């Protein structure tokens, strides 16, 4: 049996190979997560400070949820910088920035010369949308 000290409460517990916290703290963290989740459900775009004050959950715990990808920063306004663990670029969630994530997946493929066809496309569809509206207006007259 692998006995370890829980990093949160300091008690000895049987490490099962996956969970870093003791069962008691794991339960606490799960309750914390539910609190944060419930709060963000009613109050999207809350800051970490607000969530911390309203739920009583520690800022570190909230940040940990974001790092674990359990919370996405879309619903939470980040008032601190989460940094890419590889290049240090500011990121909104997870451990790596988009660039590093792509590089880690692609391996050696350089991702510097990346075209952005999605932007062109959305512009085109904007125009189409406006033209459609005018057309509809004329049609109704
Ligand atoms: Zn513990
Ligand atoms: Zn990076």
Report how far the terminal alpha carbons are from each other: 81 Å
Largest sheet: 2 strands, antiparallel
Please compute the radius of gyration using only Cα atoms. Answer: 23 Å
What is the count of helical runs? Answer: 5
Q: Total strand count, please?
A: 6
Mean pLDDT: 77
Strand content: 5-15%
Shape: flat
Class by helix and strand content?
Answer: mainly alpha
Describe this structure in words.
The structure is a single chain. By secondary structure, the protein is mainly α. It has a domain at 1-77. It is 50% helix and 11% strand. The chain has 5 helices and 6 strands. It has helices at 23-42, 48-55, 59-67, 98-106, 117-140, and strands at residues 2-5, 12-15, 46-47, 76-77, 82-83, 90-91. A two-stranded antiparallel ribbon has the order 1-2. A two-stranded parallel ribbon has the order 3-4. α1 (23-42) crosses α2. The longest helix is centred in the last third of the chain and has 24 residues, at 117-140. It is flat. The relative contact order is 0.07. Mean pLDDT is 77; it is low at 113-140. Residues 84, 86-87, 89, 96-97, 99-100 line the site of one zinc ion.
């Amino acid at each position: 049996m692998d006995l370890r000290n829980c990093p949160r409460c300091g008690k000895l517990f049987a490490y099962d190979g996956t969970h870093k916290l003791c069962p008691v703290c794991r339960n606490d963290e799960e309750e914390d997560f539910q609190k944060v989740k419930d709060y963000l459900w009613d109050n999207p775009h809350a800051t970490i400070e607000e969530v911390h004050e309203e739920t009583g959950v520690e800022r570190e715990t909230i940040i940990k949820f974001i790092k674990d990808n359990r919370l996405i920063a879309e619903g939470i306004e980040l008032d601190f910088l989460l940094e890419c663990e590889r290049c240090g670029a500011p990121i909104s969630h997870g451990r790596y920035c988009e660039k590093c994530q792509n590089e880690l997946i692609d391996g050696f493929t350089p991702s510097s010369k990346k075209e952005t066809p999605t932007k062109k496309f959305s512009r085109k569809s904007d125009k189409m949308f406006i033209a459609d509206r005018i057309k509809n207006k004329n049609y109704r007259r």
